[in-house]
Write a structure and sequence with these properties.
alpha/beta, 4 strands, about 45% helix, about 170 residues
Length: about 170
């Protein structure tokens, strides 16, 4: 599996961001039973940067904490059924890995939300990566039932990694 993590800010962390991203992403993929080796791109930006991406790709002119850009269309969340007609668009021809999608995180929001919710920067970053990975796996939270499913899955993944509000 390949996880590309780029930090376009001056922000540094006391923990290994790439290791945290990879551990959380792998845990989500394992929990979802993803049958493929995957590629995921993660960009750390600031509020201004994420606002521009939000404006450009979603036509929403405001900052947010995380944006997810799945490369797959799912009939059912978590079902990685890829038809032959989609294969050329879904797999990296060099590595054979499934190109799952892109995640963009605001380091400003990571810091603000960690403080607001009273937990560590690592826990907040891990939570947002888990949330976004579930979006890359086809989940959404537009309806209350969908939100509940995502919340349970996020918490299960973070707990399995020992990244809890209390310990992280």
């Amino acid at each position: 599996m390949t996880f590309y993590v780029e930090n376009e800010t001056e922000t540094t962390y006391s923990f290994d961001v790439e290791q945290t991203v990879e551990a959380v992403a792998r845990a989500v993929l394992e929990a979802e039973g993803c049958p493929y080796e995957v590629q995921v791109n993660v960009l750390l930006t600031d509020n201004e940067g994420i606002r521009e991406f939000n404006r450009q790709y979603r036509q929403i002119d405001r900052e947010t904490d995380v944006l997810s850009f799945p490369n797959l269309e799912y009939g059912t969340p978590g079902h990685f059924e890829i038809g032959q007609e989609q294969e050329a668009d879904c797999f990296d021809p060099d590595s054979g890995e499934l190109i799952l999608g892109d995640i963009i995180l605001s380091v400003d929001r990571v810091a603000g939300q960690a403080e607001e919710y009273g937990h560590s920067l690592r826990r907040e970053l891990a939570f947002l990566v888990a949330h976004s990975m579930l979006h890359l796996c086809g989940y959404d939270h537009m309806e209350p039932e969908e939100a509940e499913v995502m919340e349970q899955k996020q918490e299960q993944v973070l707990t399995s990694l020992g990244i809890t509000r209390e310990t992280a």
